[in-house]
Specification:
single chain, 8-stranded parallel barrel, 7-stranded antiparallel sheet, 31 strands, alpha/beta, Thrombin, subunit H, TIM Barrel, 609 residues
Length: 609
Amino acid sequence: MKLARKIELLSPAGNLEAGIEAVNHGADAVYIGAPRFSARAAAGNSLDDIRKLTEYAHTYWAKVYVALNTILYDSEFKEVEKMIGEFYAMGVDALIIQDMGILNLDLPPIPLHASTQCDNRNIEKIRFLEDVGFSQAVLARELSLQEISEIAGETKINLEVFIHGALCVSYSGQCYISQSFAGRSANRGECAQFCRLPYTLIDASGKVLAQNKHLLSLKDLNRSEQLEELLDAGVSSLKIEGRLKETSYVKNITAWYRQKLDAIFEKRPEYTRASSGRSVPFFVPDPQKSFNRGFTSYFLHGRDKDSASPLTPKSQGEPVGNVKDLNRNYFTISGQKILHNGDGLCFINERKELQGFRVNRVEGNRIFPAEMPVLRSGVSLFRNYDHEFEKTLSKNSAERKIGLVFDLEENNFGFTLTATDEDDCRASVTTVFPKEEAQKDAKENSRQQLSKLGNTPFELEKLNFSLQGNRFIPSSVLSELKRQTVKRLLSARKIAYFRKPPARILPNQQPLATSLSYLANVANSHAKAFYVSRGGIKDIAPAFEIQAAENVPLMFIKHCILYQSGRCKKDISAIRDYKEPLYLLSGKNRFVLQFDCNKCEMQVLASPE
């Protein structure tokens, strides 16, 4: 019989609290930033917190991946090498890396995952990563379902895809606009988010095609309706973005996808969860109630004209209805959503900007704002802060338990309690105690005492008795038996936890290319030595952060402004009201757009004018 393929729900951990709650709410694995050198510089964590998270996650056989995914400078490798040794010693399950120089170090046998910052978007690149020893690769968000399936069919490496969260408009690892104009490298975790700024689009004649719009800002990813398709395409790890998000976001989104996946596993036994236990949320998960700019499945099924968020880069939230009647200090609303005191509402005002306000009081469909905004009848309202929902999430909002069977049996000296969990880990404890017949039904008391597993990670699924009679066992004896047995079972689970060994690093493979440009992000001598030893590549340009290349694209974008605005060059019926080149203006910054229609790709360059 073919074993079910383990599917991993991978959640973000901006800190220890968020990581623990991700596990509680159903994550099979969490990823957390290293103290330094992670692609979210603002989400670094101490070694002690990473150790605590690892210990907690491993209780449920959930994995912990540490993001060490920036490019590195030569002066930093001594610190990096020491840190990696500490991660391995504390039991971290894998490192997520971008810089190939790490593979040139004296590494402990810790699995390596290729960050999406490695620009993983074709079979050749994934095969190369597999050949040099990576055990998992995070695919580019822009790939279609067919492209993912083709990669899975040609490689054996575990494939990880993003299923939810913020979208970078540029291919990850291929964005240099922040470094060029702000001295803050996206490849060093310091992105200044130029893609979220408002821009004016003009053509070569100076004609304004769009004014003060967030033309490079995308909606957020949501693939909750395409999970089964992704699994069938060969994906094994499903990743939620959000190491800079609040803990409430992690709770809600993790619980949402946990329920979605569990429903799939119920009908598709060829797939199973990758960790232990059952998570039960104490609320109804809803992705619209957490930070979002609206949702898109992006390029999974081809181009989508509805993937951009040009009006605002801020969270819009869930639609709640339309304004009906306006009064001096309140308005009425149409819609089925129940609003609460303290909610945050927003709308698109007459300047085509997102404007928000706080609800002070709700009386039926009458809304009394803390300060009355300038509204108009019929305008659509959205709730981007649900006060009651957030209050629920601020408390204990989920429970995760591992199934357990107790066997209480009699022996020559007293009694033995054996615990067997859902992963077939087992522990037994024997107590010496005289055998006496009870005056009442002793089994009921035993059942009550042994089912009280309290703050342990276990829940009792079944209790078996192997007793010669109606034996009297005091509650205190049963409680101590239970306590010791659970303690031993936790130790047995720790021993049984299997940390998968890494793939073997194979030298002198077929080269990835004959030469490497600035796009390879080679910022140190270790990375250069890696590419030389893995295929004899000697023509290697320095990373943009080391030596800024001139007159080169600063962003490589699958999203296309022409297509988005109905001006696609491939469409014979498209609007032809512009003269190239096109320019993006933002403050004093001016960028020129280039369109590679063969690749369906847009590039952003610094304008020479």
